[in-house]
Amino acid sequence: MALPEVKQTATEARLANMVMPDAGCTRAAREDALARVLEMGLPSRRDEYWKYTRPDTLVSPEAPHAALFNADEPMLFDEFDRLKIVFVDGVFSPEHSDDLVLEGVSIDRIEDICCKDIHWAKELYGVLESHGQTPVQRPLAALNTAFAADGVAIHVTGKPSKPISLIYKHRSESSDAMLHHIVRVESGAEVTILENGPAASRFNKCIEIDIADGGVLHHVRAQGRDHERRAATHMFTRLGQDSVYKSFTLTVNGVLTRNEQVVELTGDDAVAHVAGACVGDGDFHHDDTVFVTHDAVNCESRQVFKKVLRNGATGVFQGKILVKEGAQKTDGYQISQSLLLDEDSQFLAKPELEIYADDVICSHGSTSGAIDETALFYLRSRGILTKDATNLLTLAFLAEAVDEIEDAALAEAMVARLEGWLSRHS
Amino acid sequence: MLEIKNLHVKLEEEDKEILKGVNLTVEAGKVHAIMGPNGSGKSTLSYVLSGRDGYEVTDGSAELNDKDLLEMEPEERAAAGIFLAFQYPVEIPGVGNMTFLRTAVNAQRKARGEEEMSAADFLKEIRAKAKSLKIDADMLKRPVNVGFSGGEKKRNEILQMAMLEPKMCILDETDSGLDVDAMKLVAEGVNALRDAGRGFLVITHYQRLLDHIKPDVVHIMADGKIVKTGGPELALEVENNGYSDILAEVN
Fold it and tell me: In the predicted model, is pLDDT for residue B98 greater than 70?
């Protein structure tokens, strides 16, 4: 079917100045992805999946300008022992990065893989993204698969002694960055992946994660700093039997952020938790779009998303649990809540369940509310200033999401960031 | 210490006068009890003194050591020395009891220009005080009042009072929902805080609490006013004959 003319024009305009990297073993996947983009067209305001978030600035030919954030706040995770992989405006930076050597894991740059004819990553590059295009189209992810020139392929075969830390620095006020990472966690292997930094003026990032039977992946991400930045991110995760995926995202500021998580539980007894906490002020727009598919027996999934919004900020949650036929004993849970600190802010939520098995437990809930006045008075009556009492209650509201992080030190680092934001904005 | 003169209060949302000229003076070192039938305005008095929203003072004054309470925010009143033990302590999920109390103690110290309490000193003090109220370490770690039994909540109020060391303690029906043993424990906690520099206003329906916290003065409140004031024997009179005799007498 032909695309609507407006969409066709917008897609062609975006593709006009894009150059596919010299692709080696990823060439076929990239060409397939480009064909998907041409077929689907890039998102427009009329698309149902983009009803609450305007994609215009994410698909425009040029990235909108985004000022750099100059503050003396130290970078997150500085105090953690980790293997640092640094990208500056979407380009790998060897001088900022550690040597990509760590026991239990092998790490290659996508650029290097492209020079090879045979590499394990070839079996994965674009595969989960392509699979994740049904039943809902995600054209920005296909665009990424086709054109992302950089990123890393992480192959986890053991239990590395420290987290792998992907750091995204933003140096140019007009940078338009695309990164594509792929991660394969082998059977019985376990890894923690950290991500932080504003990345670029506009950032399109895709991660494909394949967790084999009994593999474990912890993911903790922080999106913060440069407020004018825009980002569309996708994480496609496939879980094997008895495997575990736990992902947490903290978002602080940002005029436009769309984070999509596409999770498929394909092996029995797998566990997937995706959580997010975000705080936004003023012209802040944050969209969590999650699609969890249960396609095996006795799997557990949790979605926990909390948003604190003020001064006209907007939060969006589109979350779905799809339980396929035969996925018995599924335990699916989804909660999305917003704390609206004034009447100008808004939260738009679209929770969905679609269930084709009869022996499952699935629940979902979504709420919007203001600060509890009774609790606020109780705290003030003990001498706590209104501002501090409000901050305490705000952190308490976010706690359920932050508690999804298993590592206590990482959770504390997230709370410290939130406290910093609250102290600057109240 | 606490001086209330001709206090008139109405509900902000409806034109209904609740307090109709309350006069009350609580001296340092004394325990005053207020008794009275339901709807007489006892709890309203406690809320107005602690600064809760929803009430409008139309006349009169309330001062703590010559400072105008009614002009202050709730947190300023707390720093000045007012403490209200709530009839229904509020549950606050996500805020640890210990964090809450330490924030409160240091906020008050800061407001008074005093040095903040170190984490070590705070821990030492709270452990000792919690122990005497039979509050275990787990209750200190848990979120404020979440999952606490009725008795635990009231003991937690007294623990807060002990840590904050207020000048003027107002207890709003602290005995409600308590069994005899829990009431004794709470009363012991209150009695331990009695000293020459501190005043108490104990609001209760029943004389039984006053068996454990011996009042110096007993007031009877009815229809928004204090209608009778006497010694501890007044509480016994209420216990034996109910409020009707007293109310008939003053009318």
Answer: yes
